[in-house]
Amino acid sequence: MNKLFKKFLIAVGGLTILAVVGIAVTLYVVLYVVEDDVGDAKTQNALGVKYEQGQGVAKDLEKAADWYRLAAQQGLAAAQYNLGMMLRDGTGVVRDTRAAFGWFIRAAEQGQPDAQNELGNLYVNGDGIARDAEQAALWFRKAAEQGNAWGQYNLGVLYWDGEGVAQDQTLAIDWYRKSADQGNRFAQVALGYGYESGFGIAQDYAEALVWYQKAAGQGFVDAYQHLGILYSNGWGVAESQAQAVTWYRKAADAGQVDAQNNLAALYERGQGVGKDMEQAAHWYRKAADKGQADAQYNLGRLVEEGNGVAKDPERAAEWYRYAAEQGQVDAQFALGLAYDEGLGVVQNNAKALQWYTKAAVQEHADAQHNLGALYDQGRGVPKDVDKAVDWYRKAASNGYADSKVLRPPAEAQ
To answer: Model confidence over 257-270: pLDDT tens digits?
Structure first.
């Protein structure tokens, strides 16, 4: 019995302990840790894991952090990573990304791949340290080359965007594939998008479908949205607006704003679902309230027309402005038209010119024509027939039709 009391008894399963000397102790599962072993770094880290996850002991994040710290101070890379994560997220400790960086770098320099990836994340986000995309790429690469799925995906993102490395979407696809093959759902969607768009790899809608389905099978909401796009357009699969509605709704119900906008567009057109302008307005508003630019423009159209929602030209102009300021080209034209004709705003030729110009340089044919008209008539700008002719020609080459009717619903791709 004396030997027993020289041990710490740590439960890892259901147990009943009558802690009275000489009384029998009933244990279902007990892990015995010799007193001398409590100073062992691996044991300390293991205790941290048990307290963090509540394995056989009451979950206690503060105790988990304490055990991780003891092990980390002895140089155990796994514990340094674990402590870094708690500091990064503020679990069991006060959030301190600078301190997290310090522990991640210790672990990363020992070759711990998860820490290398997290170090890359801190650098790319400028979280607790100065943003440095090149350093992010360096650490993501170290993790990726060890087969770390997140490091592979994150390195792919940098190659895709040309941040910290020379842009190379073919290399991005290679890294996405390595990560996707390990089941990373973000990488699966990214690889699917490569196939869908034809960027970095030959366009192949059937392959895009395969990868989106893999991610959707893991419950990834963005994959639902992309499947909706494929079904809506008949890309890699028989066109089915009903299937598009199903996938868009799954994503929309989970709060995915592009899917909310696209579901609204199907309600507006009555495709795959009965036409219902109130439902269209409902879903546009959900996405618009979260800043989705296409939805803001689309909601503006309905509000301007009083279609499925109360007519309010002033509010419509506000929605157009929100979208236009994000670069949404149809909204820029619509806002220019509002200023041109005094629809919901005070008529202002100079502001009409401003917004038509923004849309025109994005090759919006109606905006190019109306901009030409301003130069032709000298409204909001000195009369300039040469510029007017130039904009008229650009509008014609972009298929301008003699109409000021706003465009159909803008769909997110």
So the answer is: 999 999 999 999 99
Provide the β-strand partners of residue 298: none
Provide the token pair at 322. Answer: 């929100």
Separation CA 63–CA 75 (nearest Å): 19
Average pLDDT of the chain is: 90
| Predicted TM-score (pTM) above 0.90 | no
For residue range 68-121, list pLDDT tens digits in order: 999 999 999 999 999 999 999 999 999 999 999 999 999 999 999 999 999 999
Residue 200's alpha-carbon distances to 77, 148, 194, 229, 380, in angstroms, are 36, 22, 6, 20, 45
pLDDT band at 406 (very low <50, low <70, confident <90, very high): very low
- Please say whether the beta carbons of 267 and 289 come within 8 A: no
Q: Secondary structure of the chain in the HEC alphabet?
A: CCCHHHEEEEECCCEECCCCCCCCCEECCEEEEEHHHHHCHHHHHHHHHHHHHCCCCCCCHHHHHHHHHHHHHCCCHHHHHHHHHHHHHCCCCCCCHHHHHHHHHHHHHCCCHHHHHHHHHHHHHCCCCCCCHHHHHHHHHHHHHCCCHHHHHHHHHHHHHCCCCCCCHHHHHHHHHHHHHCCCHHHHHHHHHHHHHCCCCCCCHHHHHHHHHHHHCCCCHHHHHHHHHHHHHCCCCCCCHHHHHHHHHHHHHCCCHHHHHHHHHHHHHCCCCCCCHHHHHHHHHHHHHCCCHHHHHHHHHHHHHCCCCCCCHHHHHHHHHHHHCCCCHHHHHHHHHHHHHCCCCCCCHHHHHHHHHHHHCCCCHHHHHHHHHHHHHCCCCCCCHHHHHHHHHHHHHCCCCCCCCCCCCCCCC
* pLDDT tier for residue 412 given thresholds of 50, 70 and 90: confident
Q: What pLDDT does 255 receive?
A: 97
250 within 8 A of 285, measured Cβ to Cβ: no
Report whether 218 contacts 184 (CB < 8 A): no
Closest listed residue to residue 120, CA positions, set 101, 145, 146: 101
Q: Compute the residue count for the chain.
A: 413
8 DSSP β-pair partners:
33
Q: If you search the block for the tokens 């009369």, which residue do you land on?
A: 383
Q: What is the pLDDT of residues 212-233, one digit of tens each?
A: 999 999 999 999 999 999 999 9
